[in-house]
Amino acid sequence: MKILILTGMSGAGKSTAFKMLEDIGYYCVDNLPVQLLKSFIDLSDNGTGDQQKVAVGLDVRNDSLQLLKDILPELRDDGKKYSILFLDAEDEVLVKRYKETRRNHPLSGTERIQAGIEKERAEIKFLKEQADFIIDTTHLLTRELKEELQKIFVEQEDFKNLFVTVMSFGFKYGIPSDADLVFDVRFLPNPYYVHELRPKTGNDVEIQQFVMKNDEAHEFLNKLEDMIKFLIPNYIKEGKNQLVIAIGCTGGKHRSVTLANAIYERLSDDDSIGIKIEHRDIAKDASRGK
Q1: What is the model's pTM?
Q2: What is the per-residue pLDDT across 239-254, written as a single tens digit (0 to 9) for each?
Q3: Burial 140-169 (b: 16+ CB within 10 A, else e)
Q4: Is the Cα dihedral 267, 269, 274, 279 positive or negative?
Q5: What are the structural domains of the chain?
Q6: What is the DSSP string of 37-76?
Q7: What integer pLDDT is reported at residue 76 of this predicted model?
Q8: % of the chain residues with pLDDT over 70
Q9: How far apart are the C-alpha atoms of 88 and 200, rounded to whole Å?
């Protein structure tokens, strides 16, 4: 029998995860009293072997959550193999999601939502430390979260706990607030000042050839790749789940897009991470093209 414990921060996407798990054949029970966990697993283990798949949702709505510190080792001792899926997101994103849905955090009471989030992080820290899979949904669309779950539980790919977003942006629109690493490529010649190139973007071959014909662009790319590949295993070792690499030029349309695409291609063969590309400002100020 496959046993999955689904937990994590309130507002991080557990409802979406449950729907996905049900679609692929898991029998899902949410907010089961912790005291009943062992009995529930025993009843579910009906001798069907690996065919039986059970997902149990456990989070801070359960007043006895701390009992898991004793129950989980007992399950291991009884030969019950389980996995823990922990969904997380940055505090600012969780607050925004609660405000959009006009719901209160289960631990906030009469306090601010942020206070409830802080309490929750402290209470479920031990589950995150034991988790087999950690998915940070800060930058994931619902579709992308489903794709990550599909990879783990259907395609059974090796899961990458560090998810890297390579993002191009324009400095005139502001530095991305969630960026971990920010790089400025405004030192490179700007295609904006070549009239026939102005309407195009860094996704077009003509712009890529213009930007990458400079030796400085190749040297920058090589040094950036070397530094990021040095940082990645150290971030993983420290338990970091999300890394946003922001590459900026003036308008976020030409140089930054070209370099972001190039570093994305170079990092895509790293089996230790999940990765995606995002061009934040590529469509802005389209008439001017800068």
Answers
A1: 0.62
A2: 777 899 999 999 999 9
A3: beeeebbebbeebbeeeeeebbbbbbbbbb
A4: positive
A5: 2-153 (3.40.50.300), 162-279 (no CATH)
A6: HHHHHHHH--S-GGG-EEEEE--TTSTTGGGHHHHHHHHH
A7: 86
A8: 93
A9: 38
| Residue 287 pLDDT class (50, 70, 90 cuts) | very low
Side chain identity at residue 206, one-letter code: E
pLDDT of residue 288: 47
Least Cα distance to 90 among 13, 21, 36 occurs for 13
Q: Two tokens at 53? A: 């798949």
Q: How many residues does the chain have?
A: 290
Q: Are strands 181-184 and 242-249 parallel, antiparallel or unpaired?
A: parallel
CB 201 within 8 A of CB 207: yes
Torsion of the alpha carbons at 137, 142, 148 and 150, rounded to the nearest 10: 150
Spatial distance between the Cα atoms of 87 and 10, rounded to a whole number of angstroms: 9
Local structure of residue 112 (DSSP, 8 states): -
Given the structure tokens 């530094």, which residue do they identify? 227
